[in-house]
Amino acid sequence: MAKVTEHLSKNNGKPIFSIEIIPPTKGSNIDGLLNAIEPMMELNPPFIDVTYHREEYISKQMPDGSIREIATRKRPGTVGICSAIMQKFKIDPVPHVLCGGFNKDETEDLLIDLNYLGVENVLALRGDYAKPYDSFMPKEDGHTYANELVGQIVAMNRGQYLHEEAEYLNASNFCIGVAAYPEKHFEADSLDFDMLNLKRKVDAGADYIVTQMFFDNQKYFEFVNLCRQEGINIPIIPGLKVLSTKKQMEILPKLFYLGLPEEFKKSIQACENDKQVKQVGIEWTIQQCRELMEFGVPALHFYTMSKSDTTMAVAREIF
Ligand SMILES: Cc1cc2nc3c(=O)[nH]c(=O)nc-3n(C[C@H](O)[C@H](O)[C@H](O)COP(=O)(O)OP(=O)(O)OC[C@H]3O[C@@H](n4cnc5c(N)ncnc54)[C@H](O)[C@@H]3O)c2cc1C
């Protein structure tokens, strides 16, 4: 088992094939997920990101007729999936760890579990809003921003736990990734302000960055240059998604606050069905990958949504 940064530095300047998967919906069997990952093993990804899905709130009628708000998790199981990935594929899992839905003690307990499992990497995030709310509310005594969460993980890496004061506590050894947004995080008033906050995460101890998906490489190139000017010198892994339906052309920009290049949109609009859109999406991503490789990216990170077909169609051309 190794750290993401070690994997990146061991690859002799060649970008790594990297993937993100999501846990199945509650009640599903893990076999479906493992079967979806299996074909991607052909390209030896050295690590796999596993997303974390916080609770959402639904109204539920109780036996006495009253209505209660219930917290429920649609996609639990991040930690178990990490363990299954280690056992079955002997690959480093990178669990996503969130501020949202956790207080600091619960975060510490989660990190202890991960440490006992032998997980050496985490992606530290603030997390999405708890549905159906339209703003981020930290849990009482939880973190509000990802830089604070990075601070807690770094403290544990020094052997500093929240309440224990013994001198020789077992220090964890997590390599810490954080998120960044080449087209700006939607809440930030400007890219400059967002950059300031990214710098906070790096100064707090982040080891590498993974970007939000983008379809215009220029946005990534400009973003990386800006980071370097601001003294952010850790690896910046580009996030990629293969657009494969006309519906995604509408949804992805709204969901992730990103732009689609006009040329790409025109090609999608000209398609008669989603089979053609998929092909256009694959070809676009292949072109993106080739340019990114020329730029010298450390890895190509694919948001797979736990499906292998489009990612593999791109990756087989590239790696
Ligand atoms: C690679 C990647 C993986 C992801 N995986 C998941 C996942 O598994 N589960 C999930 O729920 N979500 C996930 N997300 C989504 C992410 O949680 C959301 O985008 C969230 O809104 C922001 O998370 P963050 O860690 O970037 O937040 P932060 O870095 O905390 O930033 C959030 C906002 O606050 C601002 N800000 C940051 N610090 C400060 C500060 N100290 N003072 C004032 N303003 C500040 C920032 O500019 C930004 O606008 C992922 C995103 C990416 C890019």
Query: Helix tally?
Result: 11
Order of helices and strands: HEHEEEHEHEHEHEHEHHHEH
The N- and C-terminal alpha carbons lie at a distance of: 23 Å
* Main β sheet profile: 8 strands, parallel, barrel
Widest β-sheet, arrangement of strands:
1-2-5-6-7-8-9-10
Number of distinct beta strands: 10
The residue-averaged pLDDT reads 96
Low-pLDDT runs: none
The secondary structure category is: alpha/beta
Q: Give the overall silhouette.
A: globular
Helix content: 40-55%
**Ligand roster:** flavin-adenine dinucleotide
CA-atom Rg in angstroms: 20 Å
- Strand portion, in percent? 15-25%
Lay out the secondary structure.
Elements: H1 4-10, E1 16-21, H2 30-37, E2 47-50, E3 56-61, E4 67-72, H3 78-89, E5 92-98, H4 104-117, E6 121-125, H5 146-157, E7 175-180, H6 191-204, E8 208-213, H7 217-229, E9 236-240, H8 246-256, H9 262-269, H10 274-295, E10 299-303, H11 309-318
Parallel strand pairs: 1-2, 1-10, 2-5, 5-6, 6-7, 7-8, 8-9, 9-10
Antiparallel strand pairs: 3-4
Bound molecules: flavin-adenine dinucleotide.
Residues 51-52, 54, 96, 98, 125-128, 145-147, 179, 185, 187-188, 193-194, 197, 200-201, 210, 212, 239 line the site of flavin-adenine dinucleotide (FAD).
3D architecture notes:
The chain is an alpha/beta fold and 319 residues long. Helix 5 runs parallel beside helix 6, helix 9 runs antiparallel to helix 10 and helix 10 packs parallel to helix 11. The chain contains eleven helices and ten strands. The strands form two sheets. It has an eight-stranded parallel β-barrel with strand order 1-2-5-6-7-8-9-10, surrounded by five helices. It is 41% helix and 18% strand. The model has no long low-confidence stretch (mean pLDDT 96). Strand 6, helix 5 and strand 7 form a beta-alpha-beta unit. Flavin-adenine dinucleotide (FAD) binds next to strand 5, helix 5, helix 6 and strand 8. Flavin-adenine dinucleotide binds next to strand 5, helix 5, helix 6 and strand 8.
